[in-house]
Specification:
Blueprint lengths: L4 E6 L3 H11 L5 E7 L2 H10 L4 E5 L7 H7 L5 E6 L5 H6 L4 E4 L4 H14 L18 E6 L2 E6 L3 E7 L2 E6 L3 E4 L3 H7 L5 E5 L2 E4 L5 E2 L3 E4 L2 E4 L5 H9 L4
Parallel strand pairs: 1-2, 1-3, 3-4, 4-5
Antiparallel strand pairs: 6-7, 8-9, 8-12, 9-10, 11-12, 13-14, 14-15
């Protein structure tokens, strides 16, 4: 049996710590030995326990994640987590394993863990399921000052409106400031179709379609010229 990977989570946001903890709990080899709300707690954890990997928020009060990372020994690896893309270059300058943009999806987190294993020259045997390799069935988005879980199976379509994104679900609508591109990257590519700059649709929810629109639940959504060929190709696959 392979040795466990001892990790700590460092983030000043309780919800962000909880999401990471939940995701990491699905991966057999990962052991979260401390969840810290600031760099001072993290310093103590590193001194008290053997730590292999740190999930580190960058934008924290007093001592930020970049300063904390510079103070650590090279033997401890870092995966940065932050809501701000601008920090990515600084993170990679510190030879971080990876850089995760919040809210962190399970699938993206799993990629980072595998990258850590590759860099550590640890072989992963998929038949042993040492890592949970199946695709997660949900993601989290920030809405109304909290993180909300969205199950892929609930999604009807996504609609971009100015600086906001509406996620239309079977029984409700969630509004977030996430971008269409960010969420599209987190969704299963084979289950969702981009039909327009402003619309992304769950393939299974489409009742009918033409070259100009798709219809779901009595709602018609436009198919733009730039996406038409891909939309028609993918929808005609059902008939093959």
């Amino acid at each position: 049996m392979s040795e466990p990977i001892h990790c700590i989570i460092v983030d000043d946001e309780p919800i962000a710590r909880d999401i990471l903890n939940e995701h990491l709990g699905k991966i057999d080899r990962i052991r979260v030995i401390a969840s810290c709300k600031n760099a001072l707690e993290a310093f103590k954890a590193i001194n008290d326990y053997p730590v292999d990997l740190v999930f580190l928020d960058i934008n924290m009060p007093e001592i930020d994640g970049l300063a904390f990372a510079r103070s650590m020994t090279r033997q401890i690896k870092v995966i940065f987590t932050t809501a701000y893309r601008d920090y990515a270059v600084d993170g990679f300058d510190l030879r971080a394993v990876d850089y995760l943009l919040k809210p962190v999806s399970f699938e993206r987190l799993l990629q980072s863990i595998n990258k850590y294993l590759d860099e550590s020259q640890v072989e992963v045997h998929s038949t042993n399921k040492e890592l949970v390799s199946e695709k997660d069935d949900s993601l989290y988005v920030r809405s109304d000052r909290k993180m909300i879980r969205i199950r892929f199976s609930e999604i009807l379509y996504l609609e971009s409106i100015g600086d906001y994104l509406k996620i239309h679900l079977q029984n409700r609508t969630v509004v977030t400031r996430e971008t269409m591109t960010t969420l599209e990257a987190k969704l299963p590519a084979m289950e969702f179709i981009r039909i327009h700059r402003s619309f992304l649709v769950a393939k299974k929810e489409i009742d009918s379609f033409t070259a100009e629109y798709v219809e779901l639940g009595g709602i018609q959504l436009p198919v733009s010229r730039s996406y038409k060929e891909d939309v028609l190709t993918r929808l005609h696959e059902k008939d093959r």
